[in-house]
Amino acid sequence: MKIAHLTTVDMSLRFLLLPQLEAAKEHGEVLGISAPGPHVEELETRGIRHVPLEASTRGMSLSSDLRAAAQLWRIIRAERPDILHTHNPKPGVYGRILGRLVGVPIVVNTVHGLYASPESPMLKRAFVYALEGLASRFSDAELVQNPEDLELLGRLGITPRSKLRLLGNGVDLERFNPDRARESREAKRAALGLEPDDVVVGFVGRLVAEKGLPELIEAADRPDALLPIQLDVTSDAQVAD
């Protein structure tokens, strides 16, 4: 059996999906399809064959997206996977549609998060929900990571309820065992000049507004906060305005 996972960039394959990809190797050959990048070599050393989707980009570019879709069409026809598992907003849309049209036996999508919430402007909601509704008609299953999105997709009839499954987020209990991490945690707090009872807020994600950073900074700066917190940001990327 050949299982293909489709993402926008290789970072998602490496840092979000690697345990899932390695587990899937027990059932057959596993492919990772994404834009080429610095994590491809590590993926392949772990037994995940990478197929480059050269035109795939996180940016808003219709021409790039159309080229990526055309490239994916050719990749799927050449590889003939038994299962196509799509991720991320853009490849999640064109990947589901193309997978079904090319004849992939099983097409699965993970909804890592909707790009519109009930508080978003109506035009944005209409656009995002319409695309999600269209693409979900081409899949066999929709794995949703949080119960709020699952409830919304079912209640508004965006996705057929028969396809919806609550996936949740897995946690490596061995790696994140508080008892094992105590010494490391204390050393890091000392390096940051934090007292044992100082409140620390951790953030993991890209430094972009859509990840909630403006709200985090605003909350940290509120004068009426019940507890004082120190907000430290460490990244190898620039924070966009």
Give me the secondary-structure topology.
Layout: E1 2-9, H1 10-15, H2 18-24, E2 29-35, H3 40-45, E3 49-52, H4 62-79, E4 83-86, H5 89-102, E5 106-111, H6 122-136, E6 141-144, H7 147-155, E7 164-166, H8 178-191, E8 199-200, H9 213-220, E9 229-230
Parallel strand pairs: 1-2, 1-4, 2-3, 4-5, 5-6, 6-7, 8-9
The total domain count is 2
CATH architecture call of the largest domain? 3-Layer(aba) Sandwich
What CATH calls the topology of the largest domain is Rossmann fold
Form type: globular
Straight-line N-to-C gap: 46 Å
DSSP E strands, number: 9
Class per helix and strand makeup: alpha/beta
Q: Could you estimate the helical fraction of the residues in percent?
A: 40-55%
The fourth-level CATH homologous superfamily of the largest domain is Glycogen Phosphorylase B
Order of helices and strands: EHHEHEHEHEHEHEHEHE
Unreliable spans are none
What would the average pLDDT be, to the nearest integer? 90
Please compute the radius of gyration using only Cα atoms. Answer: 20 Å
Number of helices: 9
For the record, the CATH class of the largest domain is Alpha Beta
Beta-strand percentage?
A: 15-25%
Strand order of the largest sheet: 3-2-1-4-5-6-7
